């Protein structure tokens, strides 16, 4: 009897320990987000007290005069993020549709594997390739384009190839595997009866895609694209290596610039004064808040898309 | 041919072309890494630390050691948190707090790596008053936990409820059902998830910039600055010396190989799970 209650108690303790461990890990996950925010908020204090909210819309970033403001980086982030999304979305849709409706299993499976491969390559690898292969090509294009429109200023401002355009092209490649596999996932849940119904009525394959499938996955596609945008906005190493670390407000796509992420990566180790460091941390804070909002919004859209 | 069938054919070609383009881009990138990477590979590259400034030769053994140490320690720290969080969300499916935890895991996966680097610097490096490989591992663990948690949850959700119900019917307690039934059934799925997560953090650079910092020496002490392959690639690629840029390509080749091996291992394991189920 004593034996039994002993083992009962041990089992009970194990039971409690087990659920405590689960709960602890779950709470730790939620607490991490709070911890990140608090940590970045507190350590960026010097910058917040010095510049206040005007940090967000003034455009001077000058370490020598200790004037710091985020607008050039915010513009750079949005320009590269949306630029990349704009370029890669048609291809992402095409790939997803091809895999969902055209390719047989024997073709689709290897391609899906390759998409995973491309998506799994580290950012710094894309950066390396971008710097030594893509940037020289962009440079050639810039010279050609500058001569074409006859703008010497354009030719002078960006013939090195590094700049916003190189970053946009590289980002477009990098988010392609991500957005196409997300879109593919939602295409695969379109009920077969809907498609078969349309086909039975004499619709061509493309008619079916256009009038049945795409409207069906509209919401989850938007969610997928928002999620990809979030990826592009926060992408660090590849962008850092090709964007040129320009501190001025970029005027054309050929100009060197910076995103929030690349400014931090390029300058944090050079930052000597406390205010400089705090300003870079505030950039990280802005990026963190943007990323959290975008990701949660995208997940909510995706979930609604699936429920519908 | 009517307009509709014409359009049908054109669009079919276009979607196939975009898939072809993706393969072409991937092929070009891998080709460059292979060709430029293999050219400067030699035995020294794998066994020696970087040569002193100004001397030729040397290798990236220090970075290979660093990548392994930093990644494994990050995985060791992150795995228990990730797995238990995954178990929690899976066991409390449909409950509000579990939904919040899942959402937080998703949101954390979207936190840019440079933000994690800055966090690691202000939270760990400033506190320890030194750059260290350990702070890099902890920073990477913050990326490791959410991915592991999500994979664990997804794999656990696939465990047939009949199996679990049978165990409950035999009088098993919840913890032993999770341990002895769910986790055992899902073990290879979880392992492959862990390998995928490791492949991901092994390639991260930005979280290491201000934590591991890099080192020119072969370093085994986790409390000291350490190099890693991605870090070395970044530093060499941004250097003006062609000899170092060449080493960047070779290091990239080694890193990609390492990640492919991890991913291949993960895929192999997934295939085994599916076979067991079928």
Task: List strands and helices in order, with pairings.
The complex is a heterodimer of chains A (308) and B (278).
Chain A: H1 2-43, H2 45-51, H3 71-102, H4 105-120, H5 123-149, H6 152-157, H7 164-187, H8 192-200, H9 205-216, H10 218-234, H11 237-242, H12 260-267, H13 274-307
Chain B: H1 3-39, H2 43-47, H3 61-91, H4 96-109, H5 113-128, H6 133-157, H7 161-169, H8 174-202, H9 206-209, H10 229-237, H11 242-277
Question: Explain this structure to me?
Answer:
The complex is a heterodimer of chains A (308) and B (278). Chain A starts with a helix and ends with a helix. Chain A is mostly helical and 308 residues long. Helices cover 78% and strands 0% of the residues of chain A. Chain A has helices at residues 2-43, 45-51, 71-102, 105-120, 123-149, 152-157, 164-187, 192-200, 205-216, 218-234, 237-242, 260-267, 274-307. In chain A, helix 3 packs parallel to helix 7 and helix 8 runs antiparallel to helix 9. Chain B has 2 domains: 3-39; 45-277, MetI-like (MetI-like fold, Orthogonal Bundle), CATH 1.10.3720.10. Chain B is built from 11 helices and no strands. Chain B has helices spanning 3-39, 43-47, 61-91, 96-109, 113-128, 133-157, 161-169, 174-202, 206-209, 229-237, 242-277.
